[in-house]
Amino acid sequence: MQTLKDLIGESKIFAQREVLSPHYTPEKLIFREKEINNIEKAIKPALEGEKGRNLFIYGRTGTGKTTCTKYVITEIKEIPNTKARVSYVNCRMYNTRFRVLNKVIAEHMPNYARRGYGTVDLYEKLTNWIEEDNKILVLVLDEIDMVKDLDDLVYTMTRINSDIRAGGVAMIGISNKVSFKEELDPRSLSALYESELVFPSYYSDEIYAILKDRAMKGFKNGTVTEDILHFIAASAAKEGGDARLSLKILSKSGEIAEEHGKDRITMEEAEEAVKIAESEIVYELISSLPEHQKLVLYSIVLLAQSGGSYKKLTDGIDTYLFSGEVYNRYKSISESLKRVPKSERWYRNYISELEMQGLIASFDSSKGIRGHTKLIKLLYPTQKTRAVLERNIFGLNGPMDKKEDAAGVG
Q: Where in the chain is the domain with CATH 1.10.8.60?
């Protein structure tokens, strides 16, 4: 049994554990030079005292969006005598217009950031602060789609540029969801003058190179072999080229090896770490979905488990669901939970988003199967996915019982 002294002693495995964190920003970001350069070009006008244009960055989880943006933020802060001031806001934590404004105020005017002020007060203080010496506020909104009143926030920040004589605001919005702007009100959308940047997923050999670079600094010599790095890279590539997942697996492999009392990582630890990390990443993915996407996914899970009005298609291995029936189940669940179901157009967007996240697969059927329809397949174990969704939607820790019956989703 390990003692507390053993736990806090020098590690046999790790040299610099923080280097293996997905939140660590390395001195050089490999395979993302082009994307970094595009962010720098978008920021350039702000550094020269101009308002510049807004930039929206899209890409799947683990494609380097946040890391690259933080890298550019560090560059900006090292430039002397610039009018640009940067605020990075994690919108998962600061998920309303008021909270975002208050976060910016607290960062740049800490004496003013205290309770008792309303949105209008914060807006006036912010505009005055910008205008007093022609500052350009570069506002980075990470996971921008998590803001509940996004229309109000976008309209407010773009309005600042109209209300002041000098200085301005340039926004950088980061999102996993390409279609999130479609939910904006037309007046907010029309006020945006933006460019877009899409981050592609990493290939297996790119993930391997990233892991090798981090492992050289993060682990002690001889702790991890090339075979282990290749295995982890291939596992992450299967999950959509997620570099963050690969780093989580690598770090977890080292932790498990320590727990086993070993001085190096073997395939046993790597395989165990893959299983643990995959489970955690699915939970994080589902937890971050907007409410109606969760309800659509929940409908897919229920139908995959129990079937419905129409017979499910199966090839003996996988189960395929008709898109129309998934939509009908989604409407039924939404109404039972006193939510207004979204239109079929939005439903199709949600299916696309769930597919982009790697949670489902969809494809057009051949003619003759109830006409020409779309078929949907769940890509994760139904019971585990259902349990995660029920914790998120209903706050349940076990199988659905009375709440399930009340919601009419049994």
A: 4-18+202-287
One-letter identity of residue 277: A
Average pLDDT over residues 331-357: 91
Distance CA 175, CA 74 (A): 20
Torsion of CA 374, 379, 383, 388, to 10 degrees: -100
CA 235 to chain CA centroid, nearest Å = 19
> How many CB atoms neighbour CB 390 within 10 A?
20
- Distance in angstroms (rounded) separating the CA atoms of residues 160 and 150: 16
3-state secondary structure of 374: strand
| Whole-number Å distance between alpha carbons of 108 and 112 | 9
The hierarchical CATH code for the domain 33-199 is: 3.40.50.300
pLDDT digits (tens, 9 = 90+) for 254-295: 999 999 999 999 999 999 999 888 777 778 888 888 899 999
Report the distance separating Cα 29 and Cα 364, nearest Å. 39
The Cβ of residue 107 has, within 10 Å, a number of other Cβ atoms equal to: 14
Buried b (16+ CB within 10 A) or exposed e, 134-162: ebbbbbbbbbbbbbeebbbbbbbbbebbe
Taking the domain 289-407, which CATH number applies? Answer: 1.10.10.10
Report the pLDDT averaged over residues 226-234.
96
> What is the assigned CATH class of domain 4-18+202-287?
mainly alpha
Mean pLDDT of the 231-251 span: 90
Contacts of 173 (CB under 8 A, 6+ apart): 54, 55, 56, 57, 141, 144
Task: Compute how many other C-beta atoms are within 10 angstroms of the C-beta atom of residue 166.
Answer: 14
Q: What is the band of 359 on the pLDDT scale with cuts at 50, 70, 90?
A: confident
Residues whose CB is less than 8 angstroms from the CB of residue 23 and which lie 6 or more positions away in sequence, other chains included: none
Sequence-distant (≥ 6) Cβ neighbours of residue 28 within 8 angstroms: none
